Structure formats: structure tokens, C-alpha cells
């Protein structure tokens, strides 16, 4: 697929890195020549220096025959104009734009073929807000991902000593929880993937990914670790777009405090929020945290635009008694360094949340959800099976008959409102939503081909 990425910032660079590894023809456009040179030194891609809204620059980038344009510059307006030009001059089939301002997102009628021709809107702030909200609903989880409209969830947890299933074979999961449907999709031990079998023994420290119906998540988590108490008190550090959105999403159910250091911004968001207490100050101020009873806080989220400030304020909050700490981290190297440390429980990467949403529109076959896992090393995919036994490689077949690529497992099948675990004798039917886990991203093309319908399907 020929793809043009407009913007070589953190999101654009991450998208280019993910897609270049999958044999796509990638061109990145940016005004910053140094950023582009750094990318070209690391990746097998083309780069073009110039303004992404200029037709001549898009022409040099190959827009004449591009399959897709992904506009992820730092300017909403530039992203919208680029999509308009790509449609008007080049008839680009698929146009994806990152739009951050709520002022635009509040009017979806702006984005259509008869207005601003954007096929897919990506809002990183909204994606990150939803991501954090799910983690707060399941305290102790490292990742919580929705499939089939929330009917099934993939949850990552760290196994601890004392968990009933820790030290035992996976086959005993049914004995521990009779009547509860759940499936372990993958295990990462000391950073290395393990494909789970019935005789696989879970060890303390393992990062365990399991799939279950939404109502059963808490029961399965209790098998792997001591359950944390439900969340009541939350402190958010940073009143930017994400902090404000998250406060709005949480203030109806939890006691929320938000710390913002800019007086004008603090005053503005305090007028927009209903029940959130807005505090003027620095989240790295120890006296302020102690004054606000940080030792009784269930969740502390550091959400400023400064990675270092988020790390330091998160570490301080943890050491002063916050039960769970999450920090927003933009630099991938910092995410790998911080994730799972003693002081910060969850490092949240906006790029990884955004990339998953983008990949769902790039994958071949009827792929409706893609999530990037383990900082991009693995993927979880939700694909819809179409056709019949004659035209499809999966429909009408038991899972053990499907030639899955190495390192790929089918975790669950969602059929209507029913969530079925992916056992060897489960038969895939047409229109089933199949949830797959890939520990080796190089196999993604093989998985896509499984869900592409043959030419005889009408």
C-alpha cells in the first residue's frame, strides 16, 4: 500500500516505523529536515521536506497515485486543508486526519465528502482518555482493551505471589472458576513471549494477557493477583486537553481533584467542570500533595506535556502513598524504561493508543479493531469472518483446522451477544468477530490473508 504521512512528530514517526516494517511504500512529509533525516537513517522510507498543505509538495511526495494520506501534523487546520487538497487534486481514496480541538470535533457534519473530505478522524486525546478510564475501572491492570463494542475485553496483568493460579498449570483455570469463560491469549516472561498451552505454568512476574467477557474480568484478575480495592479518590496532574477530558469523564463517579499550574487555565477549566476540585499549583510540590492527602489517593495520573515532570511527580506521589500511579510518556525510550517500575505502575503512550486506531483502517480484510501491545512488539486484532467454507479460509472450520501463522492465537469469538472462548474445537461461522493475538508482527500479512474472501464470494 502506498501511504503518505504528513508530519514527522512523535505520532507520525511512530506510525511510519510501524508501517515501514510491514512492506508498505511510505513517504513522510515535514518542514523539519533534521527530523526527516533521523527517520530516513532508521527506516526504509522516502522523505520530502516542505509544507504538507502545498499541492506541489504533495505532488513530490507521490500523491498522484497514493492509496492513503495520514495527516498528523501539529495543526488541525493544516491536516484538514491537506485532506481537502488530496481529495480535490489527487482523488486520494482514503484520508485520515488527526483533529485535537473539541471545537471541531463537536461538529461531525464538518467532515464528509460534501464538506471537509476526511474519511477517518483520529483524536489522540479522546483515545487516551478512554484508555485511562478503562484502567481506572480495573485497578491493577496494565492494559484494558475493548472488542466487539465492549462485549469482550483483553486485559494485561502482572502475576503476583499469592494469586491462586500462580505456580499452577493453565488447565486448572476451569477448576478455579467453574462457569466463567476466559482464555489466556499470551504470556510475556522477562520480556519474551510464551504461547500458552494447557500445561504452561504461570510464574510470579509474568505479564499475562487474557480475554474474557466484560462481566468476568474482575474474577479472572483475582486468580492472578490480589484484587485492589475499587477506586474512589483520584488526583490528576495537568489541566490540558487530556486532563480536562478525563476529569469530565470521571467526576460523575469518583472524587476528582485536578492540579494546574497556569492561573488562567485553572480558572477556565474550573468553570467548565462540575464536581472536580481544581487546585492551582505544581504537581511536583510535595507540600501540596501532602496537603491534599496523597496517602489516601487511589489513583494519581500525571498528564502534563512534560515527560520529565510526569515521571518525577508520579514518583513523588507513589513514594508519598498514592496506591496507583500512571504517567503520560511521549518518548518511547522512556516508556520502556518506566513501565512496571516500583514507582510508576503504568506508563501511558499516546502514540501507541493512536497507532492502533490508525492500523484498523490500514489492515486488509475486514479488520475492525487493532491494538498495539508491548510497546508495538505485539498486536491484538479483531477481524470479521465473511463468506462460507468454499470462499473463506476460516468460515466453517474448527480453530485447529485453521493454518494460523506461528505465534498467533485465537483468543475468543464474539457471535452476536455471546462471547465464546477460542478452543481447538470452536467452529468459526460467517459474521463472527474473531479476536486474535500476535506476538510476531511480521506475520500480520498472513493473518490478513486468512480473513480475505475468495473471488467467488458474492
Which features characterize this protein?
single chain; 6-stranded parallel β-sheet; Alpha-Beta Plaits; 4 domains; Rossmann fold; globular; 458 residues; 15 helices; alpha/beta
Task: Give your account of this protein's structure.
This protein is α/β, with parallel strands linked by helices and 458 residues long. It folds into four domains: 2-122, NAD(P)-binding Rossmann-like Domain (Rossmann fold), CATH 3.40.50.720; 128-224, Regulator of K+ conductance, C-terminal domain (Alpha-Beta Plaits), CATH 3.30.70; 233-350, Rossmann fold, CATH 3.40.50.720; 354-450, Regulator of K+ conductance, C-terminal domain (Alpha-Beta Plaits). 29% of the residues lie in helices and 26% in strands. It contains 15 helices and 22 strands. It has helices at 10-20, 33-42, 55-60, 76-90, 102-105, 124-137, 173-176, 217-224, 241-250, 263-272, 286-291, 307-319, 332-338, 350-359, 444-450; strands at residues 2-6, 25-30, 46-49, 68-71, 94-98, 120-122, 141-147, 152-158, 182-189, 192-194, 207-213, 233-237, 255-260, 277-280, 299-302, 324-328, 346-348, 367-373, 378-384, 408-415, 418-421, 433-438. Strands 3-2-1-4-5-6 form a six-stranded parallel beta sheet, sandwiched between helices. Helix 1 packs across helix 14 and helix 6 (124-137) packs across helix 9. The longest helix has 15 residues, at 76-90. The chain is globular. The protein starts with a strand and ends in an 8-residue tail after the last helix. 44% of the residues are buried. The model has no long low-confidence stretch (mean pLDDT 86).
